[in-house]
């Protein structure tokens, strides 16, 4: 897979970044064309091998983000967008984007908490949550109360995560 796949995926990432930061949603009119175009381009350039490459990437992006969606960490638009990223760029790059995005999201979350001066309250809440997981293993514990959730557009972390993965010399 060449650099052209990243550049082909970039307009979809930019559109998702814009809509997510403005509305906290990534609409289907961005995600569906991203997935379809990724499969189409990979299929045309690589034949069956390209389609397999796109399928593995789309499945990886979708499944890993679906797990995060189930626990309430990301929205459904993020899940579908990562299927598109995977269709364009394959398994390896998509996994790297997820890792970098999570690192950027952690930094953004800490900055928001420090700015709001709620770091220690949140740490106590996380400690209680983790203690509760060991005694009451229910996924609903992660969803919690919306007022307790620290929310920001995940694309604030995904876009720099994708750039970092690209500049990091992925294979």
UniProtKB/TrEMBL annotation:
Residues 10-109 form the Prepilin type IV endopeptidase peptidase domain. One of its GO terms (cellular component) is plasma membrane. Pfam families: Peptidase_A24. GO terms for biological process: signal peptide processing. GO terms for molecular function: aspartic-type endopeptidase activity. Keywords: Membrane, Transmembrane, Transmembrane helix. The chain crosses the membrane at residues 26-44, 51-71, 91-114, 152-170. InterPro entries: Prepilin_IV_endopep_pep, Prepilin_peptidase/N-MTase. Signal peptide: none annotated. Belongs to the peptidase A24 family. This is Peptidase A24. It comes from Paenibacillus durus (Paenibacillus azotofixans). The lineage of its organism: Bacteria, Bacillati, Bacillota, Bacilli, Bacillales.
């Amino acid at each position: 897979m060449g650099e052209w796949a990243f550049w082909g995926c970039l307009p979809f990432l930019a559109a998702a970044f814009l809509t997510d930061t403005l509305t906290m949603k990534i609409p289907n009119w961005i995600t569906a064309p991203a997935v379809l175009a990724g499969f189409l381009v990979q299929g045309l350039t690589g034949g069956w091998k390209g389609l397999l490459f796109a399928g593995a990437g789309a499945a990886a992006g979708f499944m890993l983000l679906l797990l995060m969606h189930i626990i309430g960490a990301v929205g459904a638009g993020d899940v579908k967008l990562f299927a598109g990223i995977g269709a364009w760029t394959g398994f390896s790059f998509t996994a790297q984007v997820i890792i970098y995005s999570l690192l950027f999201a952690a930094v953004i979350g800490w900055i928001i908490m420090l700015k709001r001066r709620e770091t220690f309250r949140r740490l106590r809440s996380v400690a209680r949550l983790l203690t509760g997981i060991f005694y009451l293993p229910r996924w609903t514990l992660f969803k919690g109360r919306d007022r307790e959730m620290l929310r920001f557009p995940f694309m604030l972390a995904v876009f720099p995560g994708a750039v970092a993965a690209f500049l990091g010399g992925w294979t």
